[in-house]
Write a sequence for this structure.
């Protein structure tokens, strides 16, 4: 099975800050990685697919990069509506999610 | 527009059974893989199972293999998850999601399954 290690598990930042989350796969998954946003009581929302592609309708302050085993998700300027938990997900071999990163406003 | 609506969740005793449904609309149901995910209270997301559009390709997570059965009725635009021998660790919100598998953009709102005596 492919394990996904996501860090940090939580972070607190100010509005306008640049925020980054990392995800490490236990083996090479090429670019078979998505990033999701989940707000309390809601289903996950796809933000980034295939490591670096912005899903339609998602603000451009969200971005993703990486390939192989190391991936990064970035919010270039944190907004109050970005308060949520973010998950990476590999789809190279079935599906595995990272443990999630809870983003809060300082 | 694509809509997925789960139903069938509830309270069940350990060892019991439950059948979840996911009603799909807004797309040609038989053209798409469908998946089930779950999320235990306060925890992260876990893949449960997926099924191809025709129903001839099916996979399960090890945690549910032998206890859960995924199926679909393309005539009724519906996806199902039969859950048997339920355990406390199966307590979760269950979500259905539409393929393609590399691009799970459409999810239902979820249905809560609670396994408790």
């Amino acid at each position: 099975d492919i394990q996904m290690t996501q860090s940090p598990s939580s972070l607190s930042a100010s509005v306008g800050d640049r925020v980054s989350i990392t995800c490490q796969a236990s083996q090479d998954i090429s670019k078979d990685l998505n990033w999701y946003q989940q707000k309390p009581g809601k289903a996950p929302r796809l933000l980034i697919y295939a490591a670096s592609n912005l899903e339609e309708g998602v603000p451009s302050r969200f971005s993703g990069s990486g390939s192989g085993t190391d991936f990064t998700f970035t919010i270039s300027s944190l907004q109050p509506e970005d308060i949520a938990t973010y998950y990476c997900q590999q789809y190279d071999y079935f599906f595995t999610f990272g443990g999630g990163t809870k983003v809060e406003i300082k | 527009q694509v809509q997925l609506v789960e139903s069938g969740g509830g309270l069940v005793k350990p060892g019991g059974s439950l059948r979840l449904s996911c009603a799909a609309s807004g797309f040609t149901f038989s053209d798409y893989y469908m998946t089930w995910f779950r999320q235990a209270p306060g925890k992260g997301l876990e893949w449960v199972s997926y099924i191809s559009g025709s129903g001839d390709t099916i996979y399960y997570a090890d945690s549910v293999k032998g206890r859960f059965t995924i199926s679909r009725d393309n005539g009724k635009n519906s996806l199902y998850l039969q859950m048997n021998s339920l355990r406390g660790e199966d307590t979760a919100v269950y979500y259905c999601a539409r393929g393609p598998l590399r691009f799970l953009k459409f999810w239902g709102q979820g249905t809560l399954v609670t396994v408790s005596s």
Observations:
- Chain A touches chain B through 21 residues (CB under 8 Å).
- The first strand of chain A starts at residue 4 and ends at 7.
- The radius of gyration of chain A is 13 Å.
